[in-house]
UniProtKB/TrEMBL annotation:
GO terms for molecular function: N-acyltransferase activity; phospholipase A1 activity; phospholipase A2 activity. It comes from Vidua chalybeata (Village indigobird). The gene is Hrasls_1. InterPro entries: H-rev107_PLA/AT (IPR051496), LRAT_dom (IPR007053), Papain-like_cys_pep_sf (IPR038765). One of its GO terms (biological process) is N-acylphosphatidylethanolamine metabolic process. PROSITE patterns: LRAT (PS51934). This is HRSL1 enzyme. Gene3D superfamilies: endopeptidase domain like (from Nostoc punctiforme). It holds the Pfam family LRAT.
């Protein structure tokens, strides 16, 4: 579970090491966190004219016991963005976080993930270093594939990575458009 040196305070960001990624939550006190989870969420398939399908997802905001969310994974308090962003007052962070409990939110790994959610609550800005790194890696794969191709080098593996990166980027863009359309549709149907 957690480390002995972790002593979260209300309003702190909790980074949980999961296999292949980090899950983020906001500590609200008394052993509880608020976080975005796929439990109780919905997802649906969308098709685009580019002849591939993507999955657009919503996630549920939950208030749960930190130990239950962490399980056997390692975790730490990580307010790393305090260097660049001024946190809101703690009372405001907690008040805003509690308004989201049991609500469904749009979810996308690249631009609406759990880290974006908690940084929006703490700093007024949606930031996700792991999403930025994923996009940068995809762009590097594309650039490597193009460079290898232009030089006439055998780049089967690099080209495959580059091709995947392009598809992933197109899928993310299409998901964003679809979620915008869905939001506009929901907004129009409420009038």
């Amino acid at each position: 579970m957690g480390q002995d040196n972790c002593n979260p305070q209300p309003g702190d960001l909790i980074e949980i090491d999961r296999r292949g990624y980090q899950h983020w939550a906001l500590y609200v006190g008394d052993g509880y966190v608020i976080h975005v989870t796929d439990e109780g969420a919905t997802s649906f398939m969308l098709s685009s004219s580019v002849s591939y399908s993507i999955r657009a997802t919503t996630a549920k905001v939950k208030k749960e016991i930190l130990k239950d969310v962490v399980g056997n994974d390692k975790w730490r308090v990580n307010n790393k963005y305090d260097r660049y962003c001024t946190p809101r007052p703690v009372e405001e962070i907690i008040r805003r976080a509690e308004r989201w409990i049991d609500r469904e939110v749009a979810y996308n790994v690249l631009n609406r993930n759990c880290e974006h959610f908690v940084t929006m609550l703490r700093y007024r800005k949606e930031v996700s270093e792991q999403a930025t790194k994923a996009v940068s890696s995809a762009a590097a794969g594309v650039a490597a594939g193009v460079a290898a191709s232009e030089l006439g080098l055998p780049a089967v593996g690099v080209a495959a990575v580059a091709g995947f990166a392009v598809i992933a980027g197109l899928a993310a863009a299409a998901a964003g458009v679809a979620l915008l359309r869905m939001t506009l549709y929901r907004s129009a149907s409420r009038r």
